[in-house]
């Protein structure tokens, strides 16, 4: 009996309590309970006097399929299939932010508003997403992530029904903002890779999941444009709603019940305060955030100004051709296995520098040839997409080693800087193009990776 108590006490001192284990004094045999269970509770104490422990056990077993229940001794493996599921989750949740972009004119007609007013919809979605990154994503370090992610997916899907049926433009805008805030589930998936993926496959798995984000942008714009061209624009919203419910079902069936990282030792306000603190005290995070800001600004600056280039002489392409230009993102997607292996094989710094060099080469070539051959912007698009993807995945692989118990907050800091870079790149890129044209804006963008290298 003494040995059993000693083992249980050792478990308790590590921060994990095994259900049914006794940690009382050896002499109090009447209070002993047998060691049991395949599950762990990431809590220091499970209340028994108010029935909470019983409620917890019953509902966990009802709401969690057997294969998804966490077992400390033999935890669910992080398989390739699970990684693909997380990538698809990223695709069909981040797509919520982009379905509206090709159909803003149709939204304006339906609600009888101006084009300028309809452009508030993507702005509010992006603003909601930014708010979710700052105020919702840090909760991933405090709560159990399976329940949290499922709740966000189902809440978004249910709210999305309002977007499909409402006739009020004010309601449409408010719900768009809320849905943008709850569409942060892809950013909760990425730290899971850092937590549970095998070390030798971490870079490859991170590249797969982050590529789901890029695929979501591509799929959303293509599907929205095609569906709205042949049917009512609300049908793409109904399709997105159905995809959310299917995604929720798939996650319910296959997502493991990961234990909380900091179940009792972290408070919400303290978690929020720790984000800016880390941004000024962790050198690796400072460098990664600076790169995230500059790379995102170059990325959005290019994709904003290339439209002006392609619709102007000597090209004068129609809007359909300009829209198909986004298909070049596929090159970055099919390159996932290649740069995933590179990141796993070499130190993150090498991969970051490689990504910067690929991006710089694309910018230089496209800037000085884009005014007389379409090969310029094509190769520039490929270079920027591939270079940014390599550097982003390598950066994440690096920053997730800072504090294993704060990976969601680290990701919040990183994504906040990337988002700020996107806004800056859009605004500055437009002004540079208006001031000096294609070569002027591209020349300024090329200086960013030069400085970083």
From TrEMBL:
This is Major facilitator superfamily (MFS) profile domain-containing protein. Its main location: membrane. InterPro entries: MFS, MFS_dom, MFS_trans_sf. It is a multi-pass membrane protein. The chain crosses the membrane at residues 77-99, 119-140, 147-168, 174-194, 206-230, 236-255, 284-311, 317-339, 346-368. The keyword NADP does not apply. It comes from Emericellopsis cladophorae. Residues 82-453 form the Major facilitator superfamily (MFS) profile domain. Pfam families: MFS_1. It is found in: Membrane. Keywords: Membrane, Transmembrane, Transmembrane helix. The lineage of its organism: Eukaryota, Fungi, Dikarya, Ascomycota, Pezizomycotina. The keyword Repeat does not apply. GO terms for molecular function: transmembrane transporter activity. GO terms for cellular component: membrane. Residues 1-37 are annotated as: Disordered.
């Amino acid at each position: 009996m003494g040995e059993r108590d000693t083992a249980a006490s050792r478990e308790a001192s590590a921060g994990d309590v095994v259900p049914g284990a006794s940690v009382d004094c050896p002499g109090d045999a009447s209070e002993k309970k047998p060691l049991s269970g395949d599950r762990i509770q990431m809590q220091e104490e499970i209340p028994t006097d108010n029935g909470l422990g019983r409620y917890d056990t019953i509902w966990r077993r009802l709401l969690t399929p057997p294969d998804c229940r966490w077992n400390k001794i033999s935890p669910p493996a992080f398989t390739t299939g699970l990684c693909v599921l997380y990538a698809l989750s990223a695709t069909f949740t981040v797509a919520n932010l982009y379905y509206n972009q090709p159909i803003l004119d149709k939204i304006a007609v339906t609600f009888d508003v101006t084009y300028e007013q309809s452009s508030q919809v993507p702005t509010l979605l992006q603003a909601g997403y930014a708010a979710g990154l700052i105020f919702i994503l840090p909760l991933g370090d405090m709560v159990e992530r399976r329940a949290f992610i499922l709740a966000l997916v189902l809440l978004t899907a249910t709210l999305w029904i309002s977007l499909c049926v409402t006739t009020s433009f004010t309601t449409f805008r408010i719900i768009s903002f809320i849905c943008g805030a709850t569409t942060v589930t892809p950013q909760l998936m990425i730290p899971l890779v850092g937590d549970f993926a095998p070390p030798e496959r971490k870079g490859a798995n991170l590249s797969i999941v982050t590529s789901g984000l890029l695929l979501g942008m591509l799929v959303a714009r293509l599907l929205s444009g095609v569906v709205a061209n042949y049917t009512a624009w609300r049908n793409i919203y109904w399709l997105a709603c159905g995809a959310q419910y299917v995604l929720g079902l798939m996650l319910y069936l296959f997502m493991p019940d990961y234990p909380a990282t900091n179940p009792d030792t972290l408070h919400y306000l303290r978690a929020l305060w720790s984000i800016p603190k880390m941004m000024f005290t962790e050198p690796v995070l400072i460098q990664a955030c600076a790169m995230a800001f500059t790379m995102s600004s170059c990325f959005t600056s290019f994709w904003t100004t290339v439209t002006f280039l392609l619709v102007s002489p000597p090209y004068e392409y129609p809007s359909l051709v300009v829209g198909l230009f986004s298909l070049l993102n596929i090159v970055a997607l099919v390159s996932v296995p290649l740069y995933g292996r590179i990141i796993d094989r070499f130190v993150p710094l090498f991969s970051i520098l490689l990504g910067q060099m690929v991006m710089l080469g694309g910018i230089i070539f496209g800037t000085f040839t884009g005014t007389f051959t379409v090969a310029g912007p094509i190769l520039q698009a490929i270079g920027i997409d591939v270079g940014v993807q390599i550097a982003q995945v390598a950066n994440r692989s690096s920053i997730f080693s800072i504090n294993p118990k704060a990976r969601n907050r680290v990701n919040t800091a990183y994504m906040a800087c990337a988002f700020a870079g996107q806004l800056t790149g859009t605004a500055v890129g437009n002004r540079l193009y208006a001031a000096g044209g294609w070569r002027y804006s591209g020349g300024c963008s090329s200086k960013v990776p030069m400085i970083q290298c």
